[in-house]
Amino acid sequence: WCVESNPSTTLKFRASAGVDKAFRLVTNEAFSAPYRLDWVNVGVQALKLQQYWSSLGGAEDVERRISLQPPYNNIPRGTWLKSLRAFTSREINPASESPSRTIMAMSPNKEVKWLTPASAAFRVLQTLVKSKRVRAFYNKKKPKRTTLDERDFNMCLHAFASNSNMVGAHRVIALQERTRHAPPLSPVTYSILLNAYGRAHDAENVEMSVLHAKRNAVVPDIVMANTLVDAYVNCGQMDKAQDVFHSLNSMAWTKSGDVEFWPRMQPNSRTFNTLLKGFAELGDVKEAMKLSREAKLQGLWDEITTNTLVKTAVTAGEFVLAEDILTNYTVSSRKARHMDHPNVEAYTELLDGYAKYGQLDNALRVMQVMQKRNVEPNEYTYTCIVGALARNNKIRQARKMIEYAAESSPSRSVLTPTYNAFVSGLLSEDSRDETAGQSSHSIAVLDALNVLREMQELGIRPNVVTVALIVDGLGKCNPPRCDEARELVNRLEHSTLTQQHGQDLPNNWGISLKNNKIAAALIQAYGRANDAESALKLFERIPSPDLVTLNSILDALCRCNKLKRALHLFKDYSLFEKWNQLNTPSGEVVIKPDVVTYTTLISSLLQLRSKAASQNAVRLYSDMKSAWWIQPDNILVDTILNSVISGGFIDDEIA
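User: That's the sequence. What structure does it adopt?
Assistant: Structure tokens below.
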């Protein structure tokens, strides 16, 4: 409102109210579901402009620029909460170990900084805690500090935990603990923590979280108990999972006479099924059967119990037992006509188990049993059997099974995964004729291309997985058919965009050389072709490379004897100091490495058999364990042992 040189107080107030109304129109739309990243950042720009109105304009009108008048110089509490929900939503903050910094930071500086959605949410939470620049509506005669909702903290906590950023997660908890008017830590808080540490297989921090809950006198509920059981199961500590389970059933007292941490509560079906899942992973049939009998006595046996118990038997190779369980506990009918049969998962598990053990006839027999018991196969069932038939060179039978799937499917679109299994089976090493060698693979690639053409003729749209499989198959030819693979992707990208009526798809969803999955397959092909430059050019075209594409380019460079370039690229994308920063310059991507990343680099360094390379390998190994807390796997251990045996330069620390 730089129209008047000396505007009145009334004019300034009315102008501020009008500007505020305009801002609310923008932010209400930008922070509403369904969330879109570009709109969310428009909302962030509006918040930034309203907060720092007087410091973001140009220098030419600085003397006449006036700040918004109170209370319109502050953002309404409801708008802050809407932004918090947007930042922590699945669309804006998808689960990833290497989240991209996609949210513009709100600061008075003209230089643009970028944050991960979780970090942006944490800054909003800090703003709400401090009540600075927050417009709250309450009775002026009885002013009071606005209380914070537990859900606000938990949304931010879950945003960090879903991205495995536990440092950020503990910052949220620390903020909640030291804020007087914040709600106390609850079982929900610890359930989020336990779930995250369980997924990371971090047993030590699972224990620490439980101790922290005890110190804060948190009264656990059944959800927290189930989450802890699941965390121990994921960490492979079945004895501790069982201890928690048994604690729920008994009133245990300490020596001092105080009741222990777990109050007496009734385990539910989820408790039993979570523990059964652990026995299923181990194939421990004896303990699983014992637990299932207890669940049956308590009336807690459900279809998930049946499915999990069958998985346990299949994992142990006890196929007869698995069939007996299904004979006795198959549900008679579906819950609703449009839903899958509750036990179709168990039948699919049994069928897939037979197929993987090479008992294809029994797998086909399971399909017949399903028909007799009115258990209709779903797309996963057909996908498993078609893949098994293709791997065993039963092409005609596989095509017949695809026809059955087409007849029972309400839409052709659901057949894409089944065709993908067919293509995967055709290109698998199991289906090759060892005597024919490379010619057998070339024939399989030709068959896969014919299947792709068939899908298009039938109106079954190939997806990213279809294309990545075929690109990988072309890349494994001798010599690799990289140009043909590239042309195939470009042709399919054009046809996909045409089918979408000119509406482009997000890079990670549509068929394109910018898609991470497809790019990774072609980069590996370039590595086999000893074409490091093409691999690098393709990698640089990817807007948001992920861990798979990073590992692919590092492997390709190492294959092409470009180890120095691989190490530089690793530092550019996976330096711990960069990953640990709260904000980075616009567009910079930082990727959290894994054991495959380090195995690729360390094995290439050790192959050089020089002291300098060995020292570099030691530094990488130390960085892997101390900074990232990544444990070596069997492949890396074998690589190091082979280097020691063959007389390589190995430092005592890494040996």
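Strands lie at 75-76, 103-104, 113-115, 134-135, 583-585.
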